[in-house]
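One such shown below:

_____
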Amino acid sequence: MPELRTDRLLLRRWQESDLEPWAAMNADPEVREHLGALLTREQSDAVVADMQAAFDERGFGWWALEARGTGEFIGRVGLDEVDEDMPFPGVDIGWRLVRSAWGHGYATEAARACLAFGFETLGLPEVIASTTVNNLRSQAVMRRIGMTRDPADDFEDPSVPEGPLRQCVLFRTHAGMHTDRPTRLEAPPTPR
């Protein structure tokens, strides 16, 4: 699993010390507002195990996100293959941060590093992102990293029960749009 470094962030392999703050994030109603039910510690731990296995298998996935200045775990960011039951294929970018890390530009900085990795190292032609129609904070990050939305692509998430989390928006960006990376990677990522 390659590590990515930006000016303020380290995108790295998950560590045992991440499990407790990750579980606390998944038990925080504000963090989970657009994601659905809160997760137990056991469910959170299982998600980390699944994320690590998928990354090892594919060479990309979800990194743990660390603030370089403090060494503090502040969330996750990464690229993931879209689930088969979704109405579109592709590789999805996403992020989830602890509340104390909101509003500092970390999601944007980390997402730019992920896009650089996806386009330059993996050779992806396109990266997509989706969220609920009401998740305006995530949609703002998507726009800041150069993604665009066509309302014709909006969809209902088939994995979500009827309710406010079912209606989603879809954003896209293409490799050629990111030649002038505003976020510098300290060391070029290397494929597995």
